[in-house]
C-alpha cells in the first residue's frame, strides 16, 4: 500500500465531484439551509402547545387560571364547550383540554378538595408529559395565590433552585442543530462513497483501476479520505458558520476536538457506504439498503430521543454503530465542554467501529472487484 | 403498403435539413448541415464516431431538441410538438449501443410486447405481429430468453424487431452492426433487405462505421467534423474520388489537413524464429454459474507478435483478456506471462502489462496531461521523470495542442490515441487492447495501427488486440476467431483463407461461424399485416400507460432482492423504530450532595431514589466531583441539600434545595425538570400535612389528568401509527425516483422520447406498480402494528386504507417530481432523501406537533402530505375515527397527488436536450 497512490486517486475523486454541479449544490444545501431551517423550526420542548379550556365555573379563580396560559409555552387558550371538546381532540386540534367544573372556586375555598380535569392527547408524547406538568404548576400557582389572601401560609417555605447546566434555557434548537449536522454527515458520507461506487460499477469504470498496480485497499482509502474530507470541511463550516454564527448556539467546548472526532466518524461511515455498495447490485437496491441503515442510525443513536429510554436490546445493538458514540461525544464536547480526558472512551469506540467497518468493507470490496 | 401515408409522394424527400447546428457545451456536434434525404431508399450516413451522425439521427427521430436550423421529416416541422406527436408512430428509431433501448431483464417476447402496447396494438394484434417478426428474424426459439442473455447480434435483431413492430415508414438505425460478429452482420443486412423487399415504400436511414457495409446502400452521406463532406450513391462517390473502395474514397473526401501525409499501413514482417513465449494460455476456462464464458482456450503468443482476436460481443474475448491481465482468476487452466503464472495479487505483473479496455480507460475529469501523469504516478514512476515521460508520450502519439484539453472534448480517434499513450506510459512489455479502434475513422485507424507496428517491430512489444475490422485483422501476425467461449481457429490470415478456400477473410470467418452454429433456421417471410393499425394519437391512452406499468412491474418482479428489501426492509424499520423511539424517561442517574445528613434530608433523597424515574448513584463529595461527573454525562441530575436543612424546615425558615440538570439534551432535561418539580411539590405537601394536619387542605384541589387515546402513555402506541406514514413516504419515493432516473442514465429513456407515449402516461404508468407495492407495504405495516405491537386499532380500517391510498399516490408522485429534473441516480437519490427524510421526520408531527413548529419548517409541515396522514393514522388507530371524520384529511391528500404529478409533467422533457 502506497500513500502516493492513495493521494493521487483521491485527488481524482475530488476532481470528479467538482464537475457534478447538482451534487455540489445538494451538499451545500444539506449543510447550510437544511440545518438552519430544521433547527429554526424546532420548538422548545413545550412551545405554543394547543390548549382549550371549558370554563363551567365562570368565577374569579377560573378567570385567573384561563389568563395564566400564555405564550411561549401555550398558545392562547380556546374557550370551548364540553360538547366541542371531544371532537376537537379527535381532529387533533387541541393537545390539552382543561375542564374547570362548576363551583370550583367555592369548593377550593371551602377546602372540599374539588377535582379539575385535564385531558391530554397522549399520542403526542413529546408534549403530553411536560405539558401536563406545566398545567399542574400553573393551576397550582394560581390557586395558591388566590387562596393566599384568605388564609395564613402553612406550607414550609422550601424552595427549589433548578438550574439546567450547559443549556440554561433548555433551547431545543441547540442540540437540534448539532444533531442535524450529525445526520447530514451520516447521510452524505454514505451516499457519496456508496452511490458513487455503484455508479462506477454500473458504468464499468471500476474495472479499469484494477489493471493498474493499485490494491483494493488503496482504492478504498482514496475514496474514504477524499469524500471524508469534503464532508469534514462541510461539517466544520456547518458547526462554525451555521450553528455558531447564524443560529447563535454557544459552543462550550473545543471545535477542533469535535472535528477530530468527526474525522473518525467519517472513517466509519464512508467505509459503511462502500460496504453497502458492495452488497447491493444496482442503485435501487442500494437506495433501499441505505434507508434500512440510515433511518435507524438517525432515530436510534440518541439524537432524537434519549438513549437510556430505549430497550436494552436496541441499546446494545446501537452501541455497535458509530453514530451512537458520536452523538454522546458531541454532546459532551460541544455543550459540556468535555476534553479528551473525558471523551476518550468514545474516541476509542469510534476507532473500533470504524476499524471494524473498514475491515468488513475491504473484505467485501475485494470480493466485489474479483 | 398498408401503412404508407396518403401524403407521401415518392419524389418528395423523407427528410429535409436546413442550417442545422447542435452544440454540447463548447463542442459543436453539427455545424450548418443542409441536406435532403430521398424517400423509399436505403440512406447511409458514413464517417467515424463523433462526427455528428448520432446527433443527426436523434434529431431526425425527434429524440433531441433542435437548437438551430430547421428539420422537416415526413412533410412537417420537427420543431413542432404536434407534428412530432402525429408522425412519431410512423418513425422507428434504434439508438446506438447494443440493446441500449431494450430492457435487459425482460424476455425477447416481453420486450416486443412492451413496444406493441406503446403503439396501441390490441392483444391479438400484438401476438400476431410478435410471432411474425420472430419468425422472420429466426428468433422464435429464443422468445423467452432475457435480453441480457442474448449475444450482440441477437440483441440487434431484437432491437430491429422492436423498431419494426408498428410498421414504420421511416426506419432510423444508428450503427446497428457495431460490435456484432461478421456472420450476424451479414444476417442483419439480409434481414433488412428482405423487409425492404416486402415494404418497398419504407425509407431507411442508417449510420455505420463499416465502409464495406455502406457499399450496399442506395445513397450515402459522408460526414466529418459535424459537416457533410459529400452525398451520392456509392458508385458516384467512387467515381468522384477515383478510389477503389469506400475507405479510400472517404479518405480522399476528407479535408486536406486531416488526410495529408496519410499512407496505407504496412507492417514489416517479423524476424523469423528464436522468439521466447510472451503469453501462454493453456486450457483457460471461466465459468459464471453453469455458464461457461470461456471454454478451454489455449494459445501461445511470441514476444513482439501482434495477435488478433476476433468474435462477436459476448463471445468471451473480454473475459479471456481479463484472465490474462489478472483481473479474473480462471476457473480452470493457467495463463502465463513470460513463463510465470499470473497471480492476480502480484503488482509486478501489472507493471509489465499495459491494458486498454473498450469502454473506458480515461478519466473524463482530468486533462490529457493529467491523465498521463496520474497513470505514471500510479505505476510508481520516479516523480522527477514523470513530466518528461508524459511530454515524450504526448509528442510520440501526436497529442501536442490538446495536452490541456479534457478527453470528452476530443474526437474519438485522438481519444483512442490518448488511451494507448496511457496504456504505454510505463513502458510495458505486453499490450492488451480490447477493441481499441471501434468507431474510429479510417485515417485515425491507420495511424493507430502504424504506431502498433512500430511498437511491435522496433520495441519488441507483444500486442494482443481484439477487433471487428477485417482489414485490421489482416495486419496481425496471427488471428484467433472466438465464438461462444471457444476458439474456432487460430492461424495466419492467409492460412485461414486457404483453409476455407475463401476470397476474403470475412468470407472465411463466416464459413467457420456457420460450421460452428450449424444451419440457420429458415426465416419466414414477413407476412403482410392486415390493416389494424390502432389509432396511436390521443392525449391519453390507458394502453400506453399500462405498457409502462407492466414493464415496471415485470422489472420489479425480476429483481427479487429489491422487492424483498422493500417489503421486509420496511417491516424491520418499523420494528426498530417503533420500539426504539421511546419518550418514557426512566432510570436516569442522579446523585446527592447531602450537606445536612439528617433524617429529613435523607427522606428527601429517598423520595427521588424511590421513584422509577431515577436511580441513585454514589453520593457527591463536592462541587468538583459534581462538575466532573456531569461533564462526562454520567449524571443527569445533581441535588444539593444545604447544611441545617432539617432545622430550617422544622422552624419554617426559608431554605433552598439546589438541583442541577444536564441540559445538553433539552428534551430529556425538560422531562427531568418536570419530574423533579413534581416530586418536590409532593414532598412539601406531605411535610405540610405532617406539620399542620388537615388545615393544609384549604386551597387544595385535585388535577385529574386523563391521558386520552393512549391511557398508559406507551410510546409504542403513540409512535407506530406515526412511523407507518414515514415509511410509506421514504421507500416509495426513492423507488419511483430511481425508476425514472435509471432509464435516463442507462439510455432506455429514448423509448419515451420517440414513441407516442405522453408525459402523463409515462409518469402514471411508472407510478402505478409502486402505488400497489406501497399499499402492500401498508397492509403489512398495519398488521405488524396491530398484531405484533398490540396497538389497539379503534377506527375504520377501510377509511384508513383510503387515506393510505391517497397518501402513497402523493409520496410516489414526489419521487417522480425529483426524477423529472435530475439526471444522475446518485444526485437523485440524495435529493429524494433530503426532501423526504427531513420533512417527514421533523416537520410532520412525528414527534413535535406541527402547531409547535416555527418558521419555514412549520410552513412546510402544514402542507406536507405526511402531516395529514399522521393525523389520519393516529385517528384511525387510537381515536376511533372513520369516514365522516376524515373530510379534511381526504381533501388535503387528494389535492396533493394532482399538484405534484402536474408539476412533474411540466418539468419532464419529452426530448433530450
TrEMBL record, chain A:
Q: Where in the cell is it found?
A: Cell membrane
Keyword match Transmembrane helix: yes
A GO cellular-component term linked to this record: plasma membrane
Q: Please report the record's description of how this protein sits within the membrane.
A: Multi-pass membrane protein
Residue intervals of the ABC transmembrane type-2 domain: 132-368
For this protein, the record's PANTHER family field holds: INNER MEMBRANE TRANSPORT PERMEASE YHHJ (PTHR30294:SF47), MEMBRANE COMPONENT OF ABC TRANSPORTER YHHJ-RELATED (PTHR30294)
The record's similarity note reads:
Belongs to the ABC-2 integral membrane protein family.
Q: What is this protein called?
A: ABC transporter permease
Species of origin: Paracoccus siganidrum
Amino acid at each position: 500500500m502506497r500513500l502516493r497512490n492513495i493521494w493521487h486517486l483521491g485527488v481524482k475523486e475530488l476532481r470528479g465531484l467538482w464537475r457534478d454541479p447538482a451534487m455540489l449544490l445538494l451538499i451545500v444545501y444539506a449543510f447550510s439551509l437544511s440545518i438552519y431551517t430544521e433547527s429554526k423550526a424546532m420548538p422548545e420542548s413545550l412551545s405554543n402547545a394547543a390548549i382549550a379550556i371549558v370554563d363551567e365555573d365562570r368565577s374569579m379563580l377560573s378567570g385567573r387560571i384561563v389568563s395564566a396560559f400564555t405564550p411561549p409555552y401555550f398558545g392562547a387558550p380556546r374557550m370551548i364547550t364540553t360538547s366541542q371538546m371531544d371532537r376537537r381532540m379527535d381532529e387533533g386540534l387541541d393537545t390539552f383540554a382543561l375542564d374547570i367544573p362548576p363551583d370550583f372556586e367555592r369548593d377550593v375555598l371551602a377546602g372540599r378538595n374539588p377535582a379539575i380535569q385535564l385531558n391530554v392527547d397522549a399520542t403526542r408524547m413529546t408534549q403530553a408529559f411536560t405539558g401536563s406538568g406545566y398545567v399542574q404548576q400553573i393551576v397550582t400557582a394560581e390557586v395558591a395565590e388566590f387562596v393566599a389572601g384568605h388564609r395564613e401560609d402553612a406550607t414550609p417555605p422550601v424552595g427549589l433552585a433548578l438550574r439546567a447546566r450547559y443549556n440554561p434555557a433548555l433551547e431545543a434548537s441547540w442540540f437540534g442543530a448539532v444533531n442535524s449536522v450529525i445526520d447530514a454527515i451520516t447521510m452524505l458520507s454514505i451516499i457519496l462513497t456508496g452511490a458513487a461506487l455503484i455508479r462506477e460499477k454500473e458504468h464499468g469504470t471500476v474495472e479499469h483501476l484494477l489493471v493498474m498496480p493499485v490494491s483494493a485497499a488503496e482504492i478504498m482509502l482514496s475514496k474514504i479520505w477524499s469524500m471524508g474530507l469534503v464532508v469534514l470541511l462541510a461539517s466544520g463550516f456547518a458547526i462554525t458558520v451555521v450553528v455558531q454564527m447564524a443560529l447563535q448556539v454557544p459552543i462550550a467546548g473545543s471545535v477542533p476536538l469535535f472535528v477530530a472526532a468527526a474525522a473518525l466518524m467519517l472513517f466509519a461511515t464512508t467505509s459503511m457506504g462502500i460496504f453497502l455498495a458492495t452488497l447491493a447490485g444496482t442503485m435501487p437496491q442500494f437506495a433501499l439498503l441505505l434507508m434500512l441503515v440510515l433511518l435507524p442510525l438517525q432515530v436510534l443513536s440518541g439524537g432524537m430521543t434519549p438513549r437510556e429510554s430505549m430497550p436494552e436490546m436496541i441499546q446494545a445493538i446501537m452501541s455497535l454503530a458509530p453514530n451512537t458514540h458520536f452523538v454522546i461525544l458531541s454532546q459532551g464536547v460541544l455543550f459540556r465542554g468535555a476534553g479528551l480526558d473525558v471523551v476518550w472512551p468514545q474516541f476509542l469506540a469510534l476507532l473500533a467501529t470504524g476499524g471494524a467497518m473498514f475491515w468488513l468493507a475491504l473484505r467485501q470490496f475485494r470480493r466485489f472487484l474479483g | 403498403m398498408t401503412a404508407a401515408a396518403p401524403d407521401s409522394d415518392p419524389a418528395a424527400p423523407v427528410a429535409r435539413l436546413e442550417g442545422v447546428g447542435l452544440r454540447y457545451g463548447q463542442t459543436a456536434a453539427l455545424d450548418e448541415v443542409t441536406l435532403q434525404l430521398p424517400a423509399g431508399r436505403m440512406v447511409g450516413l458514413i464517417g467515424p464516431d463523433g462526427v455528428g451522425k448520432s446527433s443527426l439521427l436523434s434529431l431526425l427521430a425527434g429524440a433531441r431538441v433542435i437548437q438551430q436550423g430547421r428539420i422537416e421529416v415526413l412533410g412537417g416541422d420537427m420543431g413542432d410538438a404536434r407534428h412530432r406527436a402525429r408522425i412519431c408512430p410512423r418513425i422507428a428509431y434504434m439508438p446506438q449501443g447494443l440493446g441500449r433501448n431494450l430492457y435487459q431483464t425482460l424476455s425477447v417476447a416481453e420486450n416486443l410486447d412492451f413496444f406493441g402496447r406503446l403503439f396501441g396494438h390490441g392483444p391479438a394484434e400484438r401476438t400476431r405481429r410478435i410471432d411474425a417478426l420472430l419468425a422472420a428474424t429466426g428468433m422464435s426459439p429464443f422468445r423467452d430468453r432475457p435480453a441480457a442473455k442474448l449475444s450482440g447480434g441477437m440483441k440487434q435483431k431484437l432491437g430491429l424487431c422492436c423498431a419494426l413492430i408498428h410498421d414504420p415508414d421511416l426506419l432510423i438505425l444508428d450503427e446497428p452492426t457495431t460490435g456484432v460478429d461478421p456472420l450476424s452482420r451479414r444476417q442483419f443486412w439480409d434481414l433488412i433487405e428482405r423487409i425492404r423487399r416486402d415494404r418497398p415504400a419504407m425509407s431507411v436511414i442508417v449510420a455505420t462505421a463499416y465502409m464495406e457495409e455502406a457499399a450496399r446502400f442506395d445513397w450515402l452521406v459522408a460526414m466529418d467534423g459535424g459537416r457533410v463532406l459529400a452525398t451520392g450513391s456509392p458508385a458516384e462517390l467512387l467515381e468522384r474520388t477515383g478510389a477503389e473502395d469506400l475507405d479510400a474514397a472517404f479518405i480522399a473526401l476528407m479535408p486536406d489537413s486531416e488526410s495529408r501525409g496519410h499512407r496505407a499501413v504496412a507492417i514489416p514482417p517479423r524476424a523469423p524464429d528464436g522468439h521466447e513465449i510472451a503469453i501462454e494460455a493453456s486450457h483457460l476456462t471461466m465459468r459464471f454459474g453453469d455458464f461457461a464464458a470461456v471454454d478451454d482456450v489455449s494459445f501461445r503468443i511470441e514476444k513482439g507478435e501482434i495477435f488478433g482476436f476476433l468474435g462477436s460481443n459476448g463471445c468471451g474475448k473480454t473475459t479471456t483478456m481479463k484472465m490474462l491481465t489478472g483481473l479474473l482468476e480462471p476457473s480452470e487452466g493457467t495463463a502465463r506471462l513470460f513463463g510465470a503464472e499470473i497471480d492476480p495479487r502480484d503488482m509486478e505483473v501489472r507493471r509489465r502489462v499495459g491494458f486498454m479496455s473498450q469502454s473506458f480507460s480515461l478519466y473524463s475529469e482530468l486533462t490529457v496531461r493529467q491523465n498521463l501523469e496520474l497513470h505514471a504516478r500510479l505505476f510508481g514512476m520516479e516523480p522527477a521523470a514523470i513530466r518528461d515521460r508524459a511530454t515524450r508520450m504526448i509528442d510520440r502519439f501526436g497529442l501536442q495542442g490538446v495536452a490541456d484539453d479534457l478527453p470528452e472534448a476530443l474526437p474519438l480517434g485522438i481519444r483512442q490515441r490518448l488511451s494507448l499513450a496511457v496504456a504505454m506510459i510505463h513502458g510495458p512489455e505486453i499490450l492488451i487492447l480490447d477493441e481499441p479502434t471501434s468507431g474510429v475513422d479510417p485515417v485515425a485507424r491507420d495511424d493507430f495501427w502504424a504506431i502498433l507496428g512500430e511498437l511491435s517491430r522496433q520495441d519488441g512489444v507483444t500486442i494482443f488486440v481484439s477487433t471487428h475490422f477485417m482489414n485490421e485483422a489482416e495486419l496481425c501476425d496471427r488471428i484467433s476467431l472466438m465464438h461462444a467461449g471457444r476458439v474456432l481457429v487460430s492461424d495466419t490470415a492467409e492460412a485461414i483463407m486457404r483453409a476455407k478456400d475463401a476470397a476474403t477473410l470475412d468470407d472465411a470467418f463466416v464459413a467457420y461461424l456457420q460450421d460452428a452454429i450449424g444451419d440457420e433456421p429458415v426465416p419466414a417471410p414477413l407476412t403482410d399485416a392486415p390493416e389494424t393499425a390502432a389509432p396511436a394519437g390521443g392525449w391519453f391512452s390507458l394502453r400506453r400507460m399500462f405498457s409502462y406499468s407492466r414493464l415496471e412491474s415485470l422489472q420489479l418482479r425480476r429483481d427479487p432482492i429489491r422487492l424483498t428489501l422493500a417489503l421486509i426492509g420496511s417491516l424491520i424499520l418499523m420494528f426498530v423504530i417503533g420500539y426504539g423511539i421511546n419518550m418514557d424517561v426512566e432510570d436516569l442517574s442522579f446523585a446527592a450532595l447531602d450537606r445536612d445528613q439528617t433524617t429529613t434530608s435523607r427522606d428527601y433523597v429517598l423520595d427521588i431514589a424511590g421513584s422509577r424515574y431515577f436511580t441513585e448513584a454514589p453520593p457527591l463529595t463536592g462541587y468538583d466531583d459534581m462538575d466532573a461527573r456531569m461533564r462526562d454525562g454520567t449524571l443527569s441530575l445533581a441535588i444539593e441539600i444545604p447544611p441545617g436543612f432539617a432545622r430550617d424546615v422544622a422552624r419554617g425558615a426559608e431554605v433552598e434545595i439546589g438541583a442541577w440538570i444536564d441540559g445538553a439534551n433539552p428534551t430529556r432535561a425538560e422531562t427531568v425538570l418536570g419530574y423533579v418539580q413534581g416530586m418536590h411539590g409532593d414532598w412539601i405537601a406531605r411535610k405540610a400535612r405532617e406539620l399542620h394536619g388537615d388545615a393544609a387542605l384549604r386551597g387544595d384541589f385535585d388535577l385529574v389528568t386523563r391521558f386520552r387515546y393512549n391511557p398508559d402513555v406507551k410510546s409504542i402506541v403513540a409512535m407506530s401509527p406515526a412511523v407507518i406514514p414515514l415509511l410509506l413516504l421514504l421507500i416509495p419515493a426513492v423507488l419511483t425516483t430511481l425508476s425514472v432516473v435509471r432509464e435516463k442514465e442507462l439510455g432506455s429513456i429514448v423509448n419515451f422520447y420517440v414513441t407516442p407515449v405522453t408525459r402523463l402516461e409515462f409518469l402514471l404508468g411508472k407510478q402505478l406498480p409502486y402505488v400497489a407495492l406501497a399499499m402492500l407495504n401498508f397492509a403489512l405495516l398495519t398488521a405488524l402494528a396491530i398484531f405484533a405491537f398490540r396497538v389497539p386499532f379503534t377506527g375504520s380500517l377501510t377509511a384508513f386504507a383510503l387515506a393510505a391510498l391517497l397518501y402513497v399516490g402523493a409520496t410516489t408522485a414526489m419521487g417522480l417530481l425529483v426524477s423529472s429534473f435530475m439526471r444522475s441516480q446518485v444526485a437523485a437519490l440524495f435529493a429524494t432523501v433530503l426532501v423526504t427524510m427531513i420533512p417527514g421526520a421533523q416537520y410532520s408531527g412525528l414527534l413535535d406537533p406541527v402547531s409547535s413548529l416555527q418558521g419555514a419548517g412549520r410552513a412546510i409541515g402544514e402542507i406536507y402530505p405526511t402531516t395529514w396522514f399522521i393525523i389520519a393514522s393516529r385517528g384511525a388507530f387510537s381515536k376511533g375515527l372513520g369516514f365522516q371524520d376524515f373530510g379534511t384529511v381526504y381533501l388535503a391528500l387528494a389535492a396533493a397527488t394532482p399538484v405534484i404529478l402536474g408539476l412533474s409533467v411540466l418539468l419532464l422533457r419529452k426530448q433530450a436536450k
